[in-house]
Amino acid sequence: MASCTSRNDQGMVQSGEILDSTLFYYNLSKDKSLSLIDRNKTALKSYQKIKKSIKDSLYGQVLYQKNLLHLISKEYDSLLFYNDLLLSNSLNVDKASVLAEQYYLMGYYFAEIEHDYNKAIENYSLSKEYFMRVKDSSLVGENLMNIGIIQKNNNDFFGSKETLTDALIFLKNPEKRANCYNTLATNHRKLLNFSDAIDYYQQAIYTTESKTDKLIYENNLAANYIDNKEFDKAVTLLVDISKDSAISKNPKEYARVLDNLAYAKWLSGASIKSNEFEQLLKIRVQKKDKRGKIASYTHLGEFYSNDNPRIARAYFDSVIQLSKSLKIPRAEKDALKFVMQLSPLNIEIRNRYVFLQDSIYDQELKVKTQFAKYRYDDKLKQESILNLEKENVEHQLEIVKERNQKIISYTGLALILFISAFAAFFSIQRARRLKQENRTAKMEAIYETEAELSRKLHDDFAGKLNHAMVLLQNGSDNTDVLNVVDDLYNQSRDFSRKINDVDTGPKFKEVLFGMLSSYCKNTQLIVTGSADIDWLILSDITKKTLYKVLQELMINMQKHSAASVVSIRFERTKTKLKINYTDNGNGATKSSLNNKNGLWNTEKRILAINGSLTFDSEKGDGFKAQIEIPN
């Protein structure tokens, strides 16, 4: 029995026959070599042994294991019963990880089985909170990813993009990250932003380590080409995928690839026979791929719409019936759109289409509202925790203050005067010292900037100026001399623009984002939180410092980091503007950071306006910087 005990179970075995047998049956229910029926039986025995010991540390884990087996066995009534039982005793469950896993399980149930996306988001959000308590960042990321997928499926493409961007910060597993990139690509595809969709699909293809997933993402990329009417690209890519032996081992995906290939050829105007679609439908019927059947029925309906409307209507009716059984109203609505074209005078079809359109819109609105609510509630909860900590600190300070006042009262008036005089003297000296340090920091930043400008002038202009002088001395052709002078003029203009004062007017945000993008030609730039910043009320000095600091970080990234992803998050409090910079580049040791003049000058700029800059980097582990600027 000891050898069967997992690391999480160590220390649970207490004295007593009941607890020993509970643990025995609990471990037996986790044995995947047993049949599902036997595992359910042992889980029930484990629960019967411990059901009266609610406060036992094993109680929550036994119930979670029982819930998991009910979900796998499709015993949904039992799942809901024991889920309520576990959550009603959640105060006695001493492991946050158990509640985190239970809420995750129920999030999956409501999303995939019940299609109740509001409850799914609710449970995934609660699971995320508990995983944050136990500092399991990967599962925090998975919960965010699942929420982002739900948002995408409910047409909240902008909200999904923001959620998935947050998920990428936590996810380390390449397959999960690839799934995130794939979903982000679909968001852009649905928003008709096909070029960005291509970038994200390619990122998913590059990231995944699974050969099958790689081919699936390539198939999605081909679908993006079809949507953008780039049929030749789609056909070329789908032909290559269909020849790969890995895809032929997966009949469902193989049928999907060939179906897309036939559809792309047909849309391109190539001669296609109906049996190319019908053969794939037979495969999907044989493999019981119901979602795949919807795609086949739809494509066959489109194929026959012009030549044989009666057959087309039959296929679209099959889509409608299958969509109802699978609870996919959006597929039914899409089919009805085609049917209305075939039967434009049928009022019942039009009414059903309008009803579905309204109900889908209501569902999408509920999902958007629900997730916005949980984001807001989560923010309030975090603020509440911080306020509680602040109140505790203030309370402790008040106690210390009262004690000190009693001590001071016994020392006499002379001691109070002495301390007051000393405190005043110290404050004056400290203020002078801080003022001097601030002045020194400003001067050092100025001197470093001047030195940098000097180096730029020497490197960029001296060589070409000397070349022009040699041409003049040797009596070279005027055209050659003018070309060199023209290059000097263009370089001086570009240099002037680079060192020129920052535009802090109404277009500052465009100028800032334009600068950031200019350094990310081959790097993915993810910016969040900028919409929450009121750029017009920021002071000029804050805008200038922010621009210069971020420019230096981007220069450092471009020269040294070799990063493929850069993430910048903006956050504004009452007194400060906070910026979190993260990239997944090479990183650097603390000692090497201290030797980089550009970053040293960046820190001086921040210190000169009483801000702060914190670096967090290790060699090979990316680069992070947290910036705080007073406003």
Automatic annotation (TrEMBL):
The keyword Transmembrane applies. Keywords: Kinase, Membrane, Transferase, Transmembrane, Transmembrane helix, Two-component regulatory system. It catalyses: ATP + protein L-histidine = ADP + protein N-phospho-L-histidine. The chain crosses the membrane at residues 407-428. Its EC number is 2.7.13.3. This is histidine kinase.
